[in-house]
């Protein structure tokens, strides 16, 4: 008995430690990619303000590695994907993803890391609102009140921002809107059709599509400037390690969601945001005002309550599913017993 309990507790402890390890790896890589992108794009740091070019480098690198893993090494199975399905489902998702990445990377040129994390707190608001619009979520008054409280908190944080830049805010809010629409469309266009993409297959199908979409604005906006700036030479160490971190982050998402849950990633995201705000203030020396913190604190409480509500709904759904399975099993056993009983009565009559 003692040995059984000990091995069980060891198994549980190992699972908990692994979960914390996955969370830690994801936070570290997400943190690294955000700070690294800020370092490259900021005019006061590496001073390479070409967000479309940086995003295209990431997409080219991720496409190449994904192709290698899927087609050459065959370590990951591709998904059955017809041309019609690719055009109707993957292409719109790729277009939204390219816009989301382009706008979010552009925002680093104009806004501080801390303020960008505060604006990202609006993601649940955007996902829920677009979900209701596309009839993937039902309208609930209490949820909408919570969404309003998050929005008010972000508005207060924006009011207290020392380096407020209207264009940077528009870019970041646009990135949030495009990303939220992409997440909802994944449910509508792929998940509802029984197609599930892990980060490798997702990059295999979506990254080349993003690359194609980004090429159009790149030719118009950034290529002429880069052509004039003949003194620039691509630093393979900087851009190679930056792209590697971006690819590793996708793998970390797969590990975290696959081994824990999407909700765990949401909670870990809140921890990461606070760490980034602290890093931005203490190391990068961005100004974080008391009004910033009060506003983000209010938004944080709203996001925490939203995650808690989702967890409760998930538990209730799981309990309902188990109860339905138990009822089905009980009904099946009852039918079997009744069948056996009628069989015996027939034999006795014979």
Automatic annotation (TrEMBL):
InterPro entries: Sugar_P_trans_dom, TPT_transporter
GO cellular-component term (any): membrane
GO biological process: transmembrane transport
Region named Disordered: 325-350
Keyword Membrane: yes
Chain ranges passing through the membrane: 16-36, 48-73, 85-103, 109-131, 143-160, 166-190, 202-220, 232-256, 263-284, 290-307
Membrane topology term: Multi-pass membrane protein
Keyword list, A-Z: Membrane, Transmembrane, Transmembrane helix
Subcellular location: Membrane
MF GO annotations: antiporter activity
Origin superkingdom: Eukaryota
Keyword Nucleotidyltransferase assigned: no
Sugar phosphate transporter domain sequence ranges: 21-307
Name this protein carries in UniProt: Putative sugar phosphate/phosphate translocator
Organism per entry: Vitis vinifera
Taxonomic path: Eukaryota, Viridiplantae, Streptophyta, Embryophyta, Tracheophyta
